[in-house]
Each structure stands twice: as C-alpha cells, then as structure tokens.
Design brief:
This protein has 822 residues and is an alpha+beta fold. The protein is built from 22 helices and 32 strands. The N terminus is likely disordered. It binds zinc ion (ZN).
Length: 822
C-alpha cells in the first residue's frame, strides 16, 4: 500500500495536477486501476483533439536559417554569422523571441554546472579521474557562446538578454499572427573535447598522431519552440532533457581546412568545389549501388591525415523541413555510401553514408552503412517512408550515440592492442579485435540513432519535457529492428528479452514514473528508454496484439509526422485507432512506479455435486478415507496385538457397526427425488448434464504483488499431458486490483498452471508463477578466501618502473583520502 500511495502522489505531482484525486476510495485499500485518465490528461481543444489527432486549428512556428560558419583547427573554435527568418503561425502576437544557447551549459556560471552534485553513491565520497580531468579542463578553457551581435533585417542592433542557456530578443514591434521577421546573430565559441567534458558534440582528439574529428551539435543559436500547450518551451538546458525545436529550411556554408571531408544534415550543393573528380565519380556510382562503395578509401584517408594544409574549402549544404542541423569534419574520414530504395513517391531513393576514421576499422566498413539501410527498412514499415534524401552515420567519439536530421554521431571502435598483465591470453591477442558485444553494440547504436531521424526528428516531440516520447518509442523500434538484424542479437545481455531486464529496475526503490520531466529522472536509461520501450513491447505482443497495435502505432506516426505530439496525443491515438481502452495501461506503466508481479496463490479443485445420494455418499466415503488416515494410536494398538472390547465381546455390536455414516437411506433418496422435482426444467437439465460430463472445476487465486495490473497469460497442463494456452485480459482486475479468483471448468484433471510462461509481461518474480510451486535450481560457485597483506620487505626490493603516460580509464576513481588520516 505504501508504494501505491507514493506512486499515486508521484503521478499527481508529475502530471501537474494540483487537486487530490477526488474519486479515490478511502475505505480499505480499494483502488480503481481502470479509472479513466481524465484528471491527468489536458482538456482537448481546437489544436489537439480528444481522439489524439492534430485539431482543426493546429499550428506550429517555422524558423528558416542561413549560416556561414568557419572551423578554426588551431584553437578548436568556431565562429559564424547566421540569419533566421521566423514565421509566427500562432494565433498570438509575440513581443519577444526566445533563442536556445545550448553551449552556455558549459559556462562556469550555468545552472547545469552550478547544480552538479558530488558523487556520494552508497554513502561513500568518490571522485573519478574523469570528473577530475573535466574540472581541470573547465578551469583552463572558457566555454559557452560569445554573442557578438544581434541585428534586425536592416542591420540595426536589437536588444537581447541572455538567461543562462536561453536568450530573449526583444522585437521593436510585436510580431502578429501570420507575420514573419528576420534577424541575424554573430557568435563564436570554443569547442568542447567530448571525451573530457561530455555533451553530445565537440571534438575527438587522437593523441597518437595529433588528429581530430569534429562533430558539431547544438552549435548554433536555435529557436526555442513556441507551442499551443506550454507557450515558449524555455526550460533551461541542464544536460539530460534534450531539445525542443521548430522545423525550417537550412542553407549552411561550412569553411574547414581544405583536406577535410564534411558530413552534414542535408545535401551537398557544391560537389565540384570540394570533391576531386574521382570522388565525384565514385559518389555517382554509389548513388545506384546496392552495397556500400568507397568515396574515400581507408588508404586515402590514412594518407590524407598525414599531410595537413593551411588552405580552406567551403562546403555548402541545404536541408528542407528539418528541425535541426549538425555536421562533422575531419581529414581522417573514410567515406562509403549505398542507395536505399523505398516505395515512396516523394523520396524514392535515400543515399545512406558512413564517415569514419581508420581507427574504427574493420567494423565500420562492414556494418555501418548496412545498419543505416536496415534501420530505414524496418522503421518505415512501422511508421512512414524515410522522409529525407540522405541518412548518415559518423564515427564520432568512442562512447557516442547522438541524432540529428539526416546525420548521426555513433561510437564504438575495435580495441587497439594493449597488454594486460592479468589476462592469461594477453600474449595471443591481435590488434583491432572486437567482442560480440561491441559488434552488436555498433549495430544497435546506429539503428538507435538513425531511428531517431523518425522520432523525434520527424515526429517532433518535446524532448526537454519528455525524454521517453522519443527515447522510449525509439528504443522500442530499435528492439524490433535488432530482432530483424539477426537471430539471437546480443545487446548487453545473453537472452535478448528486453522485459527480463526491466523488471529488475521496476522493483528498485530509486525510480519515478515515466511521466516525469526529463531532468528530474532518477535513472535516465531505464526510465526514459527501457521502461517505455518494454511497455510498448507488451502493448504490441500481449495487450493489443500485432495487428491492432501496428495499425494504431502507424496512425500515431502518420498523424504527427512533421508535427509536435504530446503524451496525451500518443495515449489517445493508440486507444482511438485500436478500439481498446488503455487508460489502465497508461496509468500503471506511465503514471506509477508499480511493477508486474503476479503470483498464483492457490488452486482448488472441485467436481459439481450431482446431489444424488447413491453417487455422492460413496464419493464422500472415499474422500474421508483419503483425507483422514487412521489414527496412529489405533494402528499401534493393533500392531501391539491389543484387542478392543468389541472384538472380545462381539455381542456388543449393533446396527451402526454394519452401516457407516455414508449409508444411503430411503429418506435420502426421497430428498433427492424432491430436489429434482422442485428444480426448474433448465436447472434440472444443467444439473444432470454436469453429472454426465463429470468435469473438473478449478478456482485459481491470483495475487497482484507488484501492483501493476496485467493480462494473465496462462499455461494449463492436464493430467494426460495436454497443454493449453489461455490469455486473460487485464480487465480481470477491474473490481479488485490486488487479488482475483478465476474459475476454470476442464474435462481433464489439471496438474499444473503457470502464469506468463513466455516471459511477456515483465513479471519480476517467476518463483511464484507456478502452481504447484517448483524447486528453484541454480549453481553455486565456490570461492577462495584471499587475504591481502603488504609485504614491505618484498616491495622495497622491487625494481623501479618507468611511468608510461597516455591512455586512462576515465571511469576509475581517484583515491580520496580523508584529511588527517594516514
Ligand atoms: Zn536516443
């Protein structure tokens, strides 16, 4: 009950509902898990309908961009001037415009940095090498936007106010509905080193040969979204909650060292100015290639990265109807491409491309571009045709995984050989091998990031507020795409069932409902990604079934393609299109922290009584014989040869020694005849039929330990070995969400009942799913007691080794010694 109250409270808080839940039962612990979500969901209006579709007066703003940007490789900085044309499609007049300055998150005075907390997990103060190096880098280099000028369309200065990661530009006159305005911003900033600072974009430095990969994201002042449901979405960028953006057209001129290869959102406009004749002819060939072809080969990239140049080139890209723009640049890039053909009149062909350094080989040329195309094949089937002309995967930083329209930054590289003294196989290990997990990790991250081009780059949900709306939906589709990549896909775990993993999280103390703002999530990964993804898997495979789910999900994707859905729009659309009431599902999975754990707590077997004393009395006699064994005293007396008085004096026996309590009398027979006479015809027919069928009747008790209501998939095994699968919908819990009893009539005796035999409900404890219970089996690993002690004499005699600099593992902890202690 405690968890229930907490979860209700959390749900109310997170949904922003101020009033108490007026319909909640306060006597005993009754709780209506099927109550409709009216209090939690916003009131439908002309912008968003009660069926979850965009309303008759749906609107969204538009922001078109022209940007000229230069990369300075000498000091890892960029500078740019950009023009934004902003169209006010809202019914409101706007006196100012809010702009997102995401790089300001790295400033010393940002809310994000000031509110970082120390690592005191498990009650112990710790500091990692990574955290220490980050603080040192912050001390050495200024980060954040340097805004040089904001000017209107005629070049006059405009008033602006920077508020942390947001900037308000005041308009000289209000921008009326339907009007458009233009303004320009000149700015620069120092690029962060991703592996040191962390932050979805920056540069990756390869100290071995002093080369760089630049991948610029959240790199230009972007329009804050103005919406019908929240007005300006200008919650500060704190690091976890991602981005809420407007669609528009982009033309971007990127000036970089002349030997760089550039990958960017959109399509390259000036091939002849930046590519060699040979590169152009290879690129043309790739435009009809069904497998990846090199535009820049590994050998050429290796040669290129050794030369260096003082000259620059300007790459020009155009992108239509995108909500963002990102780019990557390096002289290290290998480049391959192939064509993806799809059944779509608007976008029949998509150029799939990958850009990666030699350090990423041999994995990347084998898998990256194929994974890009595979993603489009699977995701398009579940949503809509890929809507853009290019789809790119760039190997950015090692731990990478980040998405932008038409371009994604992905990590994973094979391991360079490093001798590990503790590894008994170290001597045999060749260079650039990779584990099975790394291979599936690479394919998985590319599927995930390319998948984001559908959600949220096209279905433009509000990431700052709701991480799960893009990450959860995308992780769900990623899971489906991975299952179609190869059988037994191994992403992080041996048995690739996303539901087994999530149960562990859902039973933990440290969680909040999915419907919690992005930056307030306690565990970002399970909450924003795996739990909503698991919920959708259960919705598809178990609650709705594939046919209903796929139709409804596709409807959601189509309704909100290039529009901005909220959670209510998703919840309502999936109900609206499937025809199934799902409020209980959203309430349990998205608004509470309950988990699934159903136990079969009891099973009772019955036969229907025929009421006929000739039959029933004999059955009762047998039952009594079976259930009440002879008393021990009587048995032992007999064994000792002790005679009873009645044995010694047989004349003491009478009527009762010949007739036991189950002897049928005429009075009993008359009672039965009277009973049959008194029954209505249909009642008599039912009784006589039951007597003839001789079926077994079972009362099966289910207990909902986890609190989350769930369908009950049952496997019933009969005495003759037959198995029957039965799916009981979650509505069985509608009057009592804690315990229910189900009656089953079977013509065979049942020997066992199992709930969720296919592991499809995210049940957290399978030890209580069988009736009768099973003995749990496992293996015990033996271990040795090891006692460490310092042998100072031996340590003093050790030879002194040279320190070797370089590679470190940033997740390791710096030893923290309490002051004053030895
Ligand atoms: Zn993601």
């Amino acid at each position: 009950m405690r968890s229930l109250i907490l979860s209700l409270l959390a749900a109310l808080l997170s949904a922003g509902v101020a009033s108490a839940d007026e319909t909640r039962q306060t006597k005993n612990d009754h709780y209506d898990a099927f109550r409709q979500l009216d209090a939690e969901l916003p009131t439908p209006n002309v912008y968003r309908t009660a069926s979850g579709a965009p309303g008759a007066h749906y609107w969204q703003q538009r922001a078109d961009h022209n940007i000229k940007v230069s990369l300075n490789e000498d000091n890892q900085s960029i500078s740019a001037s950009q023009t934004i044309r902003y169209t006010n499609n809202s019914p409101d007049s706007l006196r100012y415009i809010w702009i997102q300055l995401d790089q300001n998150r790295f400033r010393a005075d940002s809310t994000a940095r000031l509110t970082e907390t120390a690592d005191t997990e498990d009650g112990e103060d710790t500091l990692s090498y990574g955290d220490l190096a980050r603080q040192q880098r912050y001390a050495d280099i200024d980060h954040g936007f340097v805004v040089e000028r904001v000017a209107d369309g005629r070049g006059r200065d405009m008033q602006y106010t920077i508020v942390d990661t947001m900037m308000r530009i005041d308009l000289p006159q209000p921008l009326r509905p339907g009007q458009r305005t233009a303004f320009s911003i000149d700015w620069s900033f120092n690029i962060i080193e991703e592996s040191v600072i962390g932050g979805r974009g920056g540069y990756d430095h390869f100290p071995e040969n002093d080369t760089y990969i630049y991948f610029l994201a959240q790199w230009f002042p972007r329009l804050a979204a103005y919406t019908d449901y929240v007005g300006w979405q200008h919650q500060q960028f704190l690091g976890a909650g991602e981005f809420t953006l407007e669609f528009g057209d982009y033309e971007v001129e990127i000036t970089v060292p002349a030997d760089h290869i550039v990958s960017a959102t959109g399509e390259l406009q000036n091939e002849s100015a930046v590519l060699s004749a040979e590169q152009r002819s290879r690129l043309n060939a790739a435009r009809s290639a069904d497998t990846p072809m090199y535009i820049v080969t590994p050998e050429e990239a290796l040669a290129n990265e050794q030369e260096g140049t003082a000259n620059t080139k300007t790459w020009v890209f155009k992108a239509t109807n995108v909500r963002d723009f990102a780019w990557a640049s390096s002289r290290k890039f290998i480049w391959d491409a192939m064509i993806h053909r799809q059944d779509d009149a608007e976008q029949p062909e998509v150029l799939a491309m990958s850009f990666f350094p030699n350090e990423a080989e041999p994995m990347w040329s084998q898998y990256s571009t194929h994974a890009v195309v595979h993603t489009m094949e699977v995701y398009s089937r579940f949503s809509f045709a890929y809507p853009y002309p290019t789809a790119q995967s760039v190997n950015a930083w090692e731990g990478g995984g980040m998405e932008y329209p038409m371009i994604t930054f992905n990590g994973r590289r094979p391991e360079p050989f490093e001798a590990d003294e503790d590894d008994p196989n170290a001597a045999d290990k060749p260079d650039r091998t990779y584990s099975r997990r790394a291979r599936h990790g690479l394919v998985g991250v590319i599927i995930h990031e390319i998948g984001h081009i559908y959600f949220p780059m096209t279905v433009n949900s509000d990431e700052r507020q709701w991480t799960w709306m893009d990450e959860g939906i995308n992780s769900f589709l990623q899971y489906l795409a991975e299952l179609e990549w190869e059988e037994d896909f191994h992403n992080h775990r041996d048995n690739y069932n996303i539901l087994e993993h999530i149960a562990e999280y859902m039973t933990s103390e440290n969680q909040v409902p999915i419907m919690t703002q992005s930056d307030s999530l306690l565990q970002f990964g399970p909450n924003g990604y795996t739990k909503p993804a698991s919920a959708l898997v259960i919705l598809r495979e178990t609650v709705l079934g594939r046919e209903l789910f796929d139709f409804a999900f596709r409807e959601y994707a189509q309704r909100w393609k290039f529009k901005r859905p909220t959670p209510a729009d998703l919840f309502r659309t999936l109900e609206d299109a499937s025809g199934i009431d799902l409020d209980w599902f959203w309430r349990g999975w998205f608004y509470s922290t309950d988990h699934v754990d159903v136990a079969i707590s009891g099973v009772r077997e019955y036969k229907v009584s025929t009421a006929d004393p000739e039959v029933e009395f004999e059955l009762s006699r047998q039952e009594r014989a079976d259930e009440t064994p002879e008393t021990l005293g009587q048995i032992r007396n007999r064994e000792e040869g002790r005679q009873t008085r009645l044995e010694r004096f047989p004349e003491l026996a009478d009527f009762y020694n010949e007739n036991d309590p189950y002897t049928v009398s005429n009075a009993d027979r008359n009672k039965y005849t009277k009973l049959l006479e008194d029954l209505d015809d249909w009642e008599r027919a039912a009784l006589l039929r039951a007597a003839a069928d001789d079926d077994f009747v079972y009362f099966v008790d289910f207990e909902n330990i986890g609190g989350l209501v769930t369908p009950l998939p049952l496997l019933i095994t009969d005495a003759n070995g037959d198995e029957e699968f039965m799916m009981i919908p979650a509505e069985i819990w509608r009057r009592n969400y804690r315990s229910v009893t189900k009656m089953l009539i079977r013509d065979q005796r049942v020997v066992s009942i199992e709930v969720d035999p296919r592991r499809e409900t995210a049940d957290a404890d399978f030890s209580n799913n069988h009736y009768p219970r099973r003995i749990e089996q496992s293996r015990l690993e033996l271990y040795k007691n090891d006692r460490d002690s310092r042998d100072l004499m031996a340590d003093m005699l050790s030879t002194l080794r040279e320190a070797k600099g370089g590679a470190d593992d940033s997740s390791r902890a710096v030893p923290l010694e309490p002051a004053g202690n030895d």
